[in-house]
């Protein structure tokens, strides 16, 4: 067992894929563009949301309006449908009860992540949260993970990062820690893409972490 298990939030702990995708589709339609299929969206190799829009003809001058409209649609119509994955609570509580430390590293704002953890009853298990607004470089840079390890005084060699995206695996490798990919039935990246990114382990249920 590792001393520290760092987790991504969206797609790993929080099941938001369908809500994000449906919100994006509505934005495309409102702006008169054809949205990507789910398969095309899942094959997007970039953590920058704007890349998906640029590839389909959106201009930089539209970016603020797109961001605002996406946020409005997501929060008003879809956010209530976002749930915690069923395996997240038993896995995280189990690891904590077994003596491991838990952290969450996300490209989203730290305050938002902390609020979500509280909503799901997970905040009591989590020793560190690092958000994208707290670091100079976001994933796939190593910096967010290294900040988490440094805050807890734990070497990256004594921890791991559990996440669902190829750029998360890249971030873990850059930080010198073990990458554990979680392949979800409907996640940001298909299992073949995760496998190609060479994680040290690939799992299908977070509770597999309890028996490693």
Question: Could you explain the architecture of this structure?
Answer:
With 212 residues, the protein is α/β, with parallel strands linked by helices. It folds into two domains: 4-16 and 83-211, HAD superfamily/HAD-like (Rossmann fold, 3-Layer(aba) Sandwich); 17-81. It is built from nine helices and eight strands. The strands form two sheets. The protein has a six-stranded parallel sheet with strand order 5-4-1-6-7-8, with helices on both faces. It has a two-stranded antiparallel sheet with strand order 2-3. Helix 1 packs across helix 4 (63-78). It is globular, with a radius of gyration of 17 Å. The chain starts with a strand and ends in a 9-residue tail after the last strand. 34% of the residues are buried. The mean pLDDT is 95.
CATH fold title of the largest domain: Rossmann fold
Describe the strand arrangement of the main beta sheet, using strand numbers: 5-4-1-6-7-8
- Which CATH top level class of the largest domain fits? Alpha Beta
State the helical fraction. Answer: 40-55%
CATH 2nd-level architecture of the largest domain: 3-Layer(aba) Sandwich
Overall mean pLDDT stands at 95
Largest sheet: 6 strands, parallel
Number of helices: 9
Number of strands: 8
Write the element-wise H/E pattern from the N-terminal end onward.
EEHHHHEHEHEHEHEHE
Shape: globular
**Name of the CATH superfamily of the largest domain:** HAD superfamily/HAD-like
User: Structural class, please?
Assistant: alpha/beta
Count of the separate structural domains: 2
State the low-pLDDT regions, or none: none
